[in-house]
Description:
Structural class: alpha/beta
Strand order of the largest sheet: 2-1-3-5-7
Distance between the termini: 20 Å
Number of helices: 8
Helix content: 25-40%
Shape: globular
Radius of gyration: 17 Å
Amino acid sequence: MPVLPKQLVVIGDSSVYGWGDTVGGGWCERLRKDWSKFHDFPIIYPLGVRGDGIEKVSLRWEKEWSSRGETRRNKPKAILLNVGLNDTPTIGQKNGRHQLEINGFEYGLERLIFEMKSQTQVFVIGLTPVDENKMPFAGCLWYSNDFCHSYERRMEEVCINQNVPFLPTFREMYSDNRSKNWIAEDGIHLNAHGHLWIYQRLKSWDILNKWKES
């Protein structure tokens, strides 16, 4: 019986889904197409749902992950987690309550990663900048780069404490003078240029490449 390639489940929100990239379908789809050129590279399953935060991903990840092993007793060998942006905004006004307060976000992420780690290899990538001039999003959600930065720092701390590979994206992207041109008209999603940037960072991430080729 032929040896099946490994599977990588990529789970998260609209960034994983590829929203905003009308050219390449998103960074995850770009990576999937790139890896699919080689028969021995892992198969990527993109599981992005628009609007998802930590709580919703926590509810669905195990069932979706365990359903994609492709054979009866096989389970995907790794998860790439990209979630958090939808937890950062305040609701109704700039100084309103957060969709999920930062301490609750940190606690939820800790639990989620701990559960995932007990089943499979876990990789985590960070957040992306927003265009604050386009707020409020959907008439009621106030995203800010300060909040994105703060939440990503908590993400990194959790990953360090749990010895999980983390790829920070917010600081590098935000500090690039071109980054304002990488955000879609709605102010929170990346456009094709932004998704291309994330794809290139992932494609050159040594830790993920070592896992892919092992």
